[in-house]
Amino acid sequence: MNQIVENIKKFRELKNLTRDEIASKLEMSLSGYSKLERGDVELTISKLYRLAEILEVDISQILNFDASQVFNVSNNQIANVIAKDQHNHYQDEYKDKYIKMLETEVERYKSMMGENL
Description:
Blueprint: H1 2-14, H2 19-25, H3 30-38, H4 45-55, H5 59-64, H6 67-71, H7 77-116
């Protein structure tokens, strides 16, 4: 279960959504959602389905998400060859989203630094 809630957190971050935004969409308190994301409370099937809708991903992606496919950190060449065809589409999609998220953060920090100079 810990891996599933960790995957939810990764998808939320890749989608550039805050905990507060997700909590609001789930009609939960921020505290309640934070506990869910930390794995302190049990994730129900209905909440899992709702999270998949909010994050615009299939439940199977949440259950089977592998960050190494996004960041290409796996050193296992055989596994990479087997998984390459299956995950190229997802890898490119998430890599692009992660790059956009980082670019947005860079611009936000530049803006903040410009205001503080």
